[in-house]
Amino acid sequence: MMERKNTVTVKSFELGLSSLLDARSKTLVVEQTDFWNRMGEECNYQVTENSAASVLRDIYRRNLLPMVEKQKKTYDVKIERKEIAGIEVEIFTPVICKARVNRHQILINLHGGGFVTGDLEGGQVESIPIAATSGIPVVSINYRLAPDAKFPAASDDVIAVYCALLQEYSSMSIGVYGASAGALLSAQVLAQLIKREIPLPAAVGMFALGAFDYMDTDSMSIVKELECINLPATENHPYYGGDTCLEDVFPGCSDAIIRRFPPSLLISSIRDLGLSSVVQTHNRLIENGVPAELRVWEGLRHCFFYDPDFDQSKEMYAAVGRHFNRYLSS
């Protein structure tokens, strides 16, 4: 009997834009795809050495700046840089009617960037619109990055800031969210809080990635070909070196951990390399009785919501605001 293969051969074909997108969204998709492809070609995703990581950070920062400027022109927030528990953070406070700003609530943002980059500009592009539209101040944490820092350095930084905020806020008035690597980090932080018996935040948001590995999944395999992505294998990623327990890195693998997650919002898009991880995380949360909402937008790529020009981005910001305003106590 012939041995069954674990792969399926797919013939080459041209993939057009979804017919469910309006004309404006199609134009923006093309522009955004070109933008990320240019950045990918420039840095070539080489993140396995210190010098390469430094180059990647410079490229990522330079390319994110135009999106940050868009966000600043679209949404009015006050940005303050300071240290909490010895960790550098930026605090984003909505500049709106004071009656709409809930100063008894706080959100913690964990930026994306593959655990290698994304500090400052990454935090800004994820925090500005959420603070402005939710009416809740956001603290974005510049956690330690690979390859200099190893797991669980980023989680430790976030927990240090979180515990400091617990001196001022009830845990039920705190929400945590992140995009891409920041979504996985959000799950890792929750797992560590559970193990250390520290009160959990009231709600969590995991966007463009979840609590599961994403490398050898359908969405990653498809998007790698679609966008000509060349990423290192998970086991070679500098952030996940050593003898780290799989359930610590990907908490979704443990039902005992994930069933204790707070109410969760999962967000992705059809052409998102993290879609499989997001969907699997949502499934496991639901199976374990955790209140969880899944939103997936058609025809868009990884972290589409970085660009505020998409109507879908505005829908995403509104969904995040509703989630945290629903579950955080005043």
If you had to describe this structure to a student in words, what would you say it looks like?
This protein has 330 residues and is an alpha/beta fold. The chain has one domain: 3-Layer(aba) Sandwich (Rossmann fold). The chain is 41% helix and 16% strand. The protein has ten helices and eight strands. The chain has an eight-stranded mixed beta sheet with strand order 1-2-4-3-5-6-7-8, with helices on both faces. A hairpin with a 2-residue loop joins strand 1 and strand 2. Helix 2 packs parallel to helix 3, helix 3 crosses helix 10 and helix 4 packs across helix 5. The radius of gyration is 19 Å and the shape is globular. The termini are far apart. About 3% of the residues have low confidence.
Which short descriptors sum up this protein?
8-stranded mixed beta sheet, Rossmann fold, 330 residues, alpha/beta, 16% strand
Instruction: Write the H/E string, N to C.
Output: HHEEEHEHEHEHHHEHEH
Distance between the termini: 65 Å
Strand segment count: 8
Structural class: alpha/beta
Gyration radius, in Å: 19 Å
Strand arrangement in the largest pleated sheet: 1-2-4-3-5-6-7-8
